[in-house]
User: Fold this.
Amino acid sequence: MPRNTMSNEDFFNITDNHMKHLQNFYNVFAEKKPVIELSLPSQKIYAYPYSDYLNALNPRSQKILKDQYSKAVKNNEMVVFVVDKEKETVKSSTFPILLDQSQK
Assistant:
């Protein structure tokens, strides 16, 4: 993963601004418990199988994702990565899964 960092404030501002779409996209694939990625600057959202996403990471990042994903599944949460290709930054966190965001 890139070595640059994204501030927590920037990360949560970005995820807050896209949360409705992140939730809706997760819900399409919820039975597979995907890892969600928001790619910047394109603002495209992807849902990846956990094992595919895990295998694309370096060993340090794999350990972090394993811990995050395990806790997320237990707590009915989703793992969201924000990947900024221009700034070469990556940050992730877990968020509660809301079943239907289409009416908000």
Summary: The chain has three helices and four strands.
